[in-house]
Amino acid sequence: MIELGRVQSLTVLKGAEIGYWLDGENLGEVFLPRKWTLGKPQIGEKVDAFVFSDSKERLTATMRRVKAQVGEFACLKVSALSPYGAFLDIGVDKDVLVPLSEQKQPMEVGRSYLVYVYLDDAGRMAASNKTDQYLNLTPAKYSANQPVKLMILNKSDLGYNAIIEHKHAGVLYQNEVFERLSFGQFTDGFIKQVRSDGKIDLMLQSHRETLDKYAKQILSELKLANGFLPLHDKTDAHVIKQELSMSKGAFKKAIGGLYRQKYIRIERDGIYLVNDSAKK
């Protein structure tokens, strides 16, 4: 079944100078203007296209990338205001309305807001700025170290709040983030744990990737420092972060792995590179 407001695979039925007509199945024929076509689709070929109703309520499609789909959260800019609400630019000719009743506070032209895109009772695409009501509606059936897609939200005392797979809320802890993150940014991440209270802890690298990354960094720093760093598991966390830009937890895991693999030895005054490892 073809859904409005989503990117789906549709079959090309016929073509003309102005564009193509696609099989919208339950929706009927969908027009794909040539200006929004990528490549030269052939009759009978399936193409991935975003389906929407244009300003004249005609079923239309685009193969170009859009900024948001139905069922997703996105950071979108207000293009215009009306007595009914604010219109958001999603990358097609027809903007999406945020009704006045779905705004946390009056929106302003030119500003971007976090919204959730949905179909209203009349089957039209709309958006809501009251996003909390669309989060955590299903059980969080994630496993530790599972890769997920994240959307970065606001920063708090704990770290960064994020939306997981357009479904759940989670937290990236400040002491485990060593890169610049911004509002509305999409990034890859991993589930750290789903806690007993249902809250979800996140990380930007898997446990294995984190260990590999930090272990390589420590080896590199050791080689640059002639095989010795005055750091160990008793060193203050802020010193480790200042010197190596990693958390103390990541540092301890990394040197533990390096010690077990006989890359380093750990002494009271710091860590030493084992001679054989310098050749690796």
Q: Approximately how much helix is present in the residues?
A: 10-25%
Q: How many distinct domains?
A: 4
**Number of helix segments?**
3
- Highest-level CATH class of the largest domain: Mainly Alpha
Domain Conserved virulence factor B-like winged helix: 217-273
Protein name: RNA binding S1
InterPro entries: CvfB_fam, CvfB_S1_st, CvfB_WH, NA-bd_OB-fold, WH-like_DNA-bd_sf
Domain Conserved virulence factor B first S1: 4-63, 70-128
Provide an overview of this structure.
By secondary structure, the chain is mainly beta. The chain folds into 4 domains: 7-62, OB fold (Dihydrolipoamide Acetyltransferase, E2P); 73-133, Beta Barrel (OB fold (Dihydrolipoamide Acetyltransferase, E2P)); 147-204, OB fold (Dihydrolipoamide Acetyltransferase, E2P) (Beta Barrel); 208-279, Arc Repressor Mutant, subunit A (Orthogonal Bundle). The protein has 3 helices and 18 strands. The chain has a 5-stranded antiparallel β-sheet, with no helix packed on it. It has a 5-stranded antiparallel β-sheet with strand order 8-7-6-9-10, with no helix packed on it. A hairpin with a 2-residue loop joins strand 6 (73-82) and strand 7. The longest helix is centred in the last third of the chain and has 18 residues, at 207-224. The chain starts with 6 loop residues before the first strand and ends in a 7-residue tail after the last strand. Belongs to the CvfB family.
